[in-house]
Write a structure and sequence with these properties.
- The chain is an alpha+beta fold and 499 residues long.
- It folds into three domains: 130 residues, 434 Repressor (Amino-terminal Domain), CATH 1.10.260.40; 126 residues, Orthogonal Bundle (Arc Repressor Mutant, subunit A); 201 residues, no CATH class.
- A six-stranded mixed beta sheet has the order 5-4-8-7-6-9. Strands 1-3-2 form a three-stranded mixed beta sheet, with helices on one face.
- The protein is globular.
- It starts with a helix and ends with a helix.
Length: 499
């Protein structure tokens, strides 16, 4: 938001607040100042900033002075809202993307009771104290954006279909890197270099880099055809969608703009939708629905059918299931762990419809080892220990959340790290088990699908016979002690009343 816009909003906020404080209607203020009703409305909405003579007239009518009205500071009741207007939050949070009108937001805030102002002030302090960066807000905003659209973007799907029609591309998979490379060269005069990055030790972790000046897409050595497919198709997405503000490396080193993050997401979505045809995926899910029992091997065959990575497959399921099958309560998770299997880090998550368990825990606690997300990694590592396990493995289970009525059908794929097989990642989709899901996937009642009681973290878990616990339930114990104190004091109060 521009500085001038902020000044207008603060001025309008003060006029609105003072008018309400003195119980004046718009008409009454208009009568006292001689200013038109529409003009007063525009002032309070932050659309107009009056000239000095009109400011003086307003100040007199509102029983304040000129300097107090034009100052960018305010009294204690308005200060939290003005702090919010000045904060980085509104500079980085894309309100317009969610259809939020800034003047309307200010109008609502200015009429809010003191409790809301106190809440706003607390949010600002949390942002400052915990050093939340723009990157945190951008990623949170993107996840909310996906949730609002049920993770399905019709315009991007249409763009993919239009591109296929224009290029006379087949609907059936798979594509090959050579095909995609030709499309880049023919349509956008972009060539591909597979040698330079691999020859630079400092660029070992950089999978790709696009040089707009040279019109060259650099790909690192050692990539699978599935990984190359994604990167080539993603560059096609950037070019075809004409996305100018964008990262040039595979993973954004600095998330310094929401538009850049959103464009990166749009190009990635285009890539996955291009490689995994929408209608073909619907047929595959319908075929899964006919299984009498969970078939790990058949599920993994989808990776070869489309020549895609595990993350692309799981993400595509998260696009198609809400749109075509009405499965809206779901989550997506990605985990990473190192060689010692001690710390499991959640590196990506998305939730549709609600914040499902599990979700990222910022308290440095130990995620439940009964999750299929973690179990699949541990099983992969065990297979690596007894043989040369290079291919991804899949697992599935129904996870019942301890002390809640919720259960999720979870599918997880684990694979070894790209540059270090001792590192591992897993990607998981979790679907809330309800009547709709049971009707879709009849194999949920099958005999070979494990059902496990799980929790969020070991520190909060009350499952007494857990064979995979990493640490004692110290948080749970602390909360129980607090509850006992509360119950004892309540009992004491009842005794006093009886006497």
């Amino acid at each position: 938001m521009r500085e001038l816009d902020t000044v207008k909003l603060i001025f309008g906020l003060k006029v609105h607040y003072l008018r309400q404080q003195q119980g004046l209607s718009y008409q009454q203020l208009s009568d006292k100042t001689g200013l038109a009703l529409s003009y007063l409305h525009n002032i309070e909405k932050g659309k107009k900033y009056p000239k000095a003579d009109k400011i003086l007239t307003l100040a007199r009518a509102l029983n304040t002075d000129y300097n107090a009205l034009v100052s960018l500071d305010a009294d204690k009741r308005l200060k939290p809202i003005i702090d919010l207007l000045h904060s980085d939050f509104l500079k980085i949070f894309p309100l317009e993307l969610f259809g939020i009108n800034m003047p309307k937001l200010v109008e609502l805030l200015s009429a809010a009771p003191d409790k809301v102002n106190a809440f706003i002030s607390t949010v600002i302090k949390i942002v400052r104290n915990y050093h939340l960066q723009g990157e945190d807000f951008y990623k949170a905003a993107l996840r909310s954006y996906q949730d609002l659209h049920d993770n399905y973007f019709d315009e991007l799907e249409k763009a993919v279909r239009r591109f296929k029609e224009e290029q006379k591309l087949p609907q059936r998979p798979p594509f090959t890197p050579a095909q995609l490379e030709k499309l880049l060269a023919r349509n956008f005069q972009i060539s591909v270099d597979r040698e330079y990055l691999g020859a630079q030790p400092a660029l070992k972790e950089v999978r790709s880099f696009y040089s707009p000046g040279r019109q060259v897409l650099f790909l690192n050595t050692g990539l699978s055809s599935a990984q190359e497919n994604f990167l080539l198709a993603k560059e096609l997405g950037f070019q075809y969608l004409k996305l100018k503000e964008r990262p040039y490396e595979t993973r954004m080193a600095d998330v310094d703009s929401f538009d850049k993050l959103l464009n990166n997401f749009n190009a990635s979505y285009f890539s996955v939708a291009l490689l995994m045809d929408e209608l073909e995926m619907v047929k595959d899910i319908e075929a899964m629905a006919a299984w009498k029992s969970w078939e790990e091997g058949q599920f993994l065959e989808l990776l070869d059918k489309y020549d895609v990575t595990p993350e692309m497959l799981i993400q595509r399921l998260a696009n198609i299931l809400p749109r075509h099958f009405g499965i809206n309560d779901l989550f997506f998770l990605r985990f990473f762990t190192g060689p010692d299997l001690k710390k499991f880090e959640m590196t990506k998550e998305m939730h549709l419809s609600q914040l499902h368990n599990p979700h990222a825990n910022q308290l440095d606690e130990h995620y439940c080892r009964r999750w299929i997300s973690i179990n699949s990694i541990r099983r992969l590592r065990a297979l690596q220990g007894i043989g040369n396990q290079e291919e991804p493995i899949a697992g599935a289970q129904v996870s019942r959340y301890w002390s809640t009525p919720n259960a999720y059908f979870c599918i997880s794929i684990a694979k070894a790290g790209h540059n270090d097989s001792q590192n591992s990642t897993s990607v998981t989709i979790g679907l809330l088990v309800n009547d709709k899901l049971r009707q879709l996937f009849r194999f949920l009642a099958g005999p070979n699908l494990p059902v496990k009681d799980v929790h969020t973290t070991c520190e909060r878990c009350g499952i007494s016979d857990c064979e995979a616990r990493a640490v004692p339930p110290i948080v749970l114990h602390h909360n129980r002690v607090k509850e006992q104190i509360k119950e004892t004091l309540e009992g004491l109060e009842k005794e006093v009343r009886v006497r």
